[in-house]
Amino acid sequence: MNSLTPVRPTPLAVLGHFLARHSRLIQAVQWLMVVIYLVLVTLPAFLPVPDDSRHIWDDLVLFAQFAFWGVWWPFVMVSMVVMGRAWCGLFCPEGPMTEWVSRHGLGRAIPAWLRWKGWPFVAFVCTTVYGQMITVYEYPKAALLILGVSTVMALGIGLVYGRGKRVWCRYLCPASGVFSLLSRLAPVHFRVDAEAWKAAPRTHAVDCATLVDVRAMTGGGSCHNCGRCSGHRGAVELAPRLPGSEIAALPAREVSAWDIVLLLFGVMGVASGAFQWSASPVFIALKQGLAKILVEHDVLFPMTGTLPWWLLTNSDETGEVFTLLDGFCILAYMGGAALLFGAIGLAGLGLSARVLGRPELLWRLGYALVPAGAAGLIVGLSAMTLTQLTAEGVFLAWVPDARAGVLAAGLAWSALLLWRSLPAVSLGRRLAAWPLGLAGAFAQIGMWGVFFFVW
Ligand code: SF4
After folding, report:
1. Quick one: which of 326, 299, 300 has its CA closest to 311?
2. What is the residue range of 49's domain?
């Protein structure tokens, strides 16, 4: 008997094996999600924009808005931290679509350019920026454009590459990089017992649609928790672990500079800028300052010029229009946030690694900042939920305390993870390197504190 086959499997292991045995049930759930997704993303785009008398419960446009941006997006982020990438493996509608198409497609080998590790960063930044330019959270046509393009690309990639695989999900999905980072914090994962694997008799290969090398899997970053490999060779099972322990013990082969670039410049920078620009006094000052300069130089077209709705917000129905100056300021704000928070985080990590006398640890230490980034994402996304609820007359008095709690917890968790990630050098060096490495987390949490409690 190996160490992964106890007399009585734990409830988590039983759950994992249940997933492995009931693939048809999971497929049914996934295809139901596909239908719901297609209805909610397509139909509202052909309905009139609702007026103030309509509500989430009596208008499909408002319901779809709330479902996508008020419930789905924030809760998917939270689910990554709580359950790993189970959303990807069990519920995401794009996964089964791209996998199904891939079963009947050209089945070509995955080229090297597609495996480039920078795609998740590029895709995340492009999607976030474009979403802000066309106000994806407000307008159903904008949502159909962004989500629709993503779905069509998922189908196209499935049609050409891989055989029954989720090549899109693994390498190109705009959310995959962020999901991968957050899922490393999760208290559950599919654990592989290398000894038991080796000792077990040869059998068929695991059909991992996400292209994970199950035998060598040590973490949850790429695993979609679909459960298909649960029980394989008596060596794989769903198991608990200390939250964040994967990051504290991350092996060098799992470390990618692109992960940290995504975290610092993408999540803490671009995404924070996207959440905050519309309520930021800095944005207003930037816009007014530029407008003044333009008027002084008699250059007026940036304040009157507009673009089609699919390039820059321009709604006939609501009258909301972004001018070229608006568009420029939004881009400048998000770009500035990316440079500011990315530079602070990177400089802090670089200095920390130098103080430790181990400059090569720069990227490795960066993973400890994931909880601070996750806290920023969660409070940022939940702000949208609250705006929608407030519009429906729902006021939640405990929200400021909850926000402060999430931000404080994110900072404390990052501090703890960074301390556990420091190498075994002298205590003095570790004490000096610790706050330096946390600079990015301090900046991120501090900025959210200013946004919610000062502005
Ligand atoms: S390793 Fe692959 S097959 Fe196993 S649970 Fe993860 S995604 Fe599914």
Report:
1. 326
2. 11-182
